[in-house]
Amino acid sequence: MNIGSLAERTGVSPKTIRYYESVSLLPRAERQSNGYRTYSSSDVATVNFIHRARNLGFSIKQVAALLELWQDKNRASADVKALALAHIGEIEERIGELEALRLTLVDLTEHCHGDQRPDCPILDGLAGTEEGGRPTRS
Questions:
Q1: Region 78-96: what's the mean pLDDT?
Q2: What is residue 35's predicted lDDT score, i.e. its pLDDT?
Q3: CA–CA separation, 51 and 6 (whole Å)
Q4: Which domains does the chain have, with CATH numbers?
Q5: How far, in Å, CA of 124 to CA of 43, rounded?
Q6: How far is CA 119 from CA 40, 104, 114, in A?
């Protein structure tokens, strides 16, 4: 099958498939005499695996490790679990960072009157000033 068919069967764009090849997540496709890439049903399974792992937020490096484990029938499931648990830790860290961002924005918006006045605690907070320390334009 060509790259268009692979994209259609997996829901992954041809550009992304080419990217997966360029970072060695997907083996380089064989080429037909006309230069078109040719993919197999195992490539469909691999692209689906990569796509699902990426949708779960795994990095390219983590996906490469997961692919290696997936393809190794003698793997230890403990290795897979360790990767997943490390990723959960990263996600929880990001959740904490996002919650801190949310709280900061909530605080700024609660102090903004949201009316016709020019003073704006949101902009002041972004500028790092308490009250209106706006730059002058020249």
A1: 97
A2: 83
A3: 12
A4: 1-58 (1.10.1660.10)
A5: 53
A6: 62, 18, 9
Could you identify the residue written with the tokens 């009157």? Answer: 113
Kindly give, in sequence order, each residue whose CB lies less than 8 Å from that of residue 4, ignoring residues fewer than 6 positions away.
14
The amino acid at residue 59 is S
What is the DSSP code string of 78-102? Answer: HHHHHHHHHHHHHHHHHHHHHHHHH
Tokens of 63: 């996906």
* Contact partners, residue 6, CB within 8 Å, separation at least 6: 12, 14, 17, 39, 43, 44, 47
Greater confidence (35 vs 105) lies with 105
Q: Which two tokens stand for residue 55?
A: 């949708």
**pTM across the whole model:** 0.78
The residue behind tokens 């679990």 is 81
Residue 70: per-residue pLDDT: 97
Cα–Cα distance measured from residue 70 to residue 26, given in angstroms and rounded to the nearest whole number: 13
- Token pair 């490790």 is found at 65
The token pair at 15 is: 């550009």
What are 94-137's pLDDT values in tens digits? 999 999 999 999 999 998 888 888 888 899 888 987 655 555 55
